[in-house]
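task queued by scheduler; priority normal; single chain, no ligands, no partner chains; default sampling; output format set to structure tokens
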Amino acid sequence: MVDHSDLVILVWNGYYDLGAGVWQLTLPGGKLTDPTPDGVRRQAEIELREETGYRAGRLEKLLNFYSHPGYIAHQVHLLVAYDLEWEPLDMEDGEEIRVHTFTLDEALAATKIDYRCDPEAALALWLYFSRTMNK
């Protein structure tokens, strides 16, 4: 997520219930029920508002991929959210999330610290950085 001043907004997500027992920087996200492009966009808008409190004026596809194709059919849809406006929704029950703002350099630096950043978030940050450098 990128706000008006080119700051990156990520969430700290507690993965205690999955056995990892850690907090990691990650992207807003959730389970997808409608895999069509419109369904992906609608779900992204909801997750963004629930987990960060922001509504995107514009969503742009970054990349779609299978995160672990060798043993699970887990599709990931990376979108960049621009032109953010404060318009929160209530979080789902049991979600434990903290929102943090970084410069792009700070966010990229976090990807180089062991266990600090979710690998999908790290990939998204480096792809976004690459895209901005090629403009």
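post-processing summary
- The CA atoms of residues 2 and 8 lie 5 Å apart.
- The chain is about 30% helix and 30% strand.
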